[in-house]
Write a structure and sequence with these properties.
The protein contains 13 helices and 18 strands. It is α+β, with helices and mostly antiparallel strands and 431 residues long. The protein folds into four domains: 80 residues, no CATH class; 123 residues, Outer membrane lipoprotein wza fold like, CATH 3.10.560; 93 residues, Outer membrane lipoprotein wza fold like (Roll), CATH 3.10.560.10; 88 residues, 2-Layer Sandwich (wza like fold). The chain is elongated and about 125 Å long. One of its GO terms (biological process) is monoatomic ion transport. InterPro entries: Poly_export, Poly_export_N, SLBB_dom, Wza_C. It is a multi-pass membrane protein.
């Protein structure tokens, strides 16, 4: 070794307190001076040890795993969720209810009780108010308006009722109410009828004709209610206005006149707007459970809106093959059907013992748990009905949780190891 090289090494040893040397195994080590740096040389090993210890600690809480986890619900019988109390939304503990045969029987009995009490049609959350409380409408109190057609029959005087002496339809033989609200009738002249009921019109005509016809007997009825309409919009074949005639129009009849509802219609959530107030009507309860209170008698100016079923979705998340949202068919979907639509649980990453159903109903929250490892799990899941906007969550298995922690930490540990083994020639080859 030359004198220049020896002096350079000695200078580095004096200034840094260490020299570079090679041991028998071929690994570099730094010869320490009075303040030895042997531990610093092994920084790469220490970093790896610290990372492994950190990963082991993280497994217990799993707080470092990206994504969702239901492990908190495993440890507590209730979890804090936002619920409505009066006008405020506050956190409250929601009890975790296991899905058992007793729970399914209890739900079925509650549904039967609602049907016997006249409140059929599924959960009460599907209706904003009882259709029985919708203000009624008496067709006898109907007041004539421009465009209406009335038919006046004078007994024993067919020449007045049918001047042409031949048969004509009711509308053709009727009398049209003019734009100014008047009609013309023989022996009575021009009569103001707008704003009058049929009984009042009969009295006016009888009084006018009494001077011409002795003991006049006549009848007045409405042939076409052209001045009064209802409007049917939304998921129907032919949306638009429907004129009211002399037959009392119900909700079902108005929808039938509009070509009936489409496949995308929400049967259980039909909206009826009357006098600025909106009511929810459940046609599915009428069709399937015979709740005739849902077939509301309409009045002029009513607006019927048949919404689509896009809001009738359930969400299946967590460790399933195809997570996502699924549209319910006529609000009928069971837990088993929802899991099947999502491809069922992922066998390699899921823990079937922890399947949750989260539900929000009128400001309150409910949380259900199913142990899908039990022999009767599939039978219970097939009998457990879901409601619109329910969330089904399948928790992750412990081994999958461990693998995710390791996969997230390994890139960092490898980077630290490469950094600790890097040589820096500009600084004398130091690491």
């Amino acid at each position: 070794m030359s004198r220049f090289t020896t002096d350079r090494i000695a200078h580095c040893g004096a200034s840094n307190g260490a020299v570079r040397a090679t041991d028998a195994s071929g690994l570099d080590a730094r010869a320490a001076g009075p303040a030895t740096r042997a531990d610093a040389i092994r920084s790469g090993g220490l970093v790896r040890t610290a990372v492994i210890a950190f990963a082991a600690a993280a497994i217990g809480g799993c707080t470092l795993i990206p994504g969702t986890s239901g492990s908190l619900m495993r440890e507590e019988s209730s979890v804090p969720l936002p619920v409505t109390e009066g006008t405020d939304t506050v956190p409250a503990n929601v009890k975790l209810k296991p899905i058992t045969a007793e729970l399914i029987i209890e739900q079925h009995q509650a549904k039967e009780s609602r049907f016997r009490s006249g409140k059929a049609g599924g959960q009460t959350a599907t209706r904003a108010s009882d259709p029985k409380k919708i203000p009624g409408f008496d067709y006898q109190d109907y007041k004539l308006g421009p465009g209406d057609i009335i038919n006046v029959i004078v007994w024993d005087h067919p020449e007045i009722t049918i001047p042409a002496g031949s048969y004509r339809s009711a509308e053709q033989s009727g009398t049209l109410v003019a734009e100014d609200g008047t009609i013309f009738f023989p022996f009575a002249g021009v009569v103001k009828v707008a704003g009058l009921t049929t009984r009042e019109v009969r009295q006016v005509l009888a009084k006018r004709m009494a001077s011409v016809i002795e003991n006049v007997q006549l009848d007045v009825r409405i042939v076409s209610f052209r001045s009064k309409r209802v409007y049917v919009v939304g998921e129907v074949a032919k949306p638009g206005l429907q004129p009211i005639d002399d037959i009392r129009m119900t909700l079902v009849e108005a929808i039938n006149r509009a070509g009936n509802i489409t496949e995308e219609a929400d049967h259980g959530n039909v909206l009826l707007t009357r006098n600025g107030q909106t009511w929810r009507v459940d046609l599915q309860a009428l069709y399937e459970e015979g709740d005739v209170s849902q077939n509301v008698l309409l009045q002029p100016g009513d607006i019927i809106n048949v919404p689509d079923r896009q809001l009738n979705k359930v969400f299946v998340l967590g460790e399933v093959r195809n997570p996502g949202s699924f549209v319910m068919n006529k609000r009928r979907t069971t837990l088993a059907e929802a899991l099947s639509d999502a491809g069922f649980v992922n066998q390699s990453t899921s823990d079937p013992a922890w399947v949750y159903v989260m539900r929000s109903d009128n400001g309150s929250a409910e949380l259900f748990h199913l142990n899908a490892r039990s022999p009767d799990a599939l039978l219970l899941a097939e009998r457990f009905p879901l409601l619109p906007r329910d969330v089904v969550y399948v928790d992750v298995a412990a081994i999958a949780r461990w693998n995710r922690v390791v996969s997230n930490i390994l890139p960092t540990s490898q980077m630290l190891q490469l950094t600790s083994e890097t040589r820096y020639p500009l600084f004398g080859g130091r690491q």
